[in-house]
Amino acid sequence: MSLKSIQGPKGSVMRIYGKIIDVIVIFLILVMLVTLFVAFVGVLQELYLALSNLKHEVAMQTLVSSILSVFVLIELFRSFTDYLEFHRIRLRVIAEVAIVFILRDVFIGLYNHQLQWQDVMALGFLLAVLVIARVAAILYPPRTEPENDSP
User: Nearest to residue 28, comparing CAs of 100, 94, 82?
Assistant: First the structure.
């Protein structure tokens, strides 16, 4: 049952609610675009610093961290746009965002030599659970309600 098929005051309130949610999500997407642009400019600055200090390992670590953070922002941006398109948060997309975020932390931790074997095992287990959730979301998509054409 769609919002357009609900009649009366309840339908009016639900349509207004839907429009308000759409405006908020569109605003959040604009904020995410600005954030993504600022993050990209930051990556360019980090790249300049890393190239000017090739022997300085901290500059390279910061560059790697910044680039991986931009990938996380891109995945979050995709989840907002999917919400605007489908009007629901899809488990597959959220699992992908979480997977990218965990991989970012693993890569940064391994690159900086800061992760203990227990951390790697715990993050690996969490990553496996998220991959299973993503595969399950693909194999078992939500059922769509059939359109009821009767009045």
Answer: 82
CA gap 80, 8 in Å, rounded:
30
Task: Compute the distance between CA of residue 74 and CA of residue 104 in angstroms, rounded to an integer.
Answer: 13
CA distance 97 to 100: 5
Give me 78's structure tokens.
């995709």
Exposed, middle or buried by CB within 10 Å (0-12, 13-18, 19+), for 28? middle
Q: Provide the phi-psi class of 89: left if phi over 0, else alpha when psi is between -120 and 50, else beta.
A: beta
At 53, list the tokens.
């200090």
pLDDT tens digits for range 64-108: 778 878 888 887 888 777 777 777 777 888 888 888 888 888 888
Measured between alpha carbons, how far is 43 from 41 in angstroms, rounded to an integer? Answer: 5
Residues 33 and 70 sit within 8 Å (Cβ to Cβ): no
The CA distance from 93 to 77, in Å, is 10
Would you say 10 and 25 are in contact if contact means Cβ atoms under 8 Å apart?
no
- Which pair of structure tokens corresponds to residue 27? 């605003």
Q: Which two tokens stand for residue 109?
A: 């931790």
